[in-house]
Please model this.
Amino acid sequence: MSMVTPMTDVLLTPYDTADYLDSPERIAAYLDAALAEDDPALVARALDAVARARGLARGEVQAGAPQLTAVIDLLNRLGLRMSVAPLEVP
Model:
């Protein structure tokens, strides 16, 4: 016999990855992990999250998606992959 207790005082908020991309190091690690999957759609979604975190318009990322797919495909054929690192600011 199981006892179920209703949760009436719980406030749930939508999860948004962009809320956690608050430093260049976190952004670079997130994008690097997405790039490692060799999935252009995943990379585009990751870039969209980064754009939201940085306050950029969504269309800026979507406009570059076809080129991103072509670059990832070319690198795969060459046996290479991209990686991301934060810029070192003096």
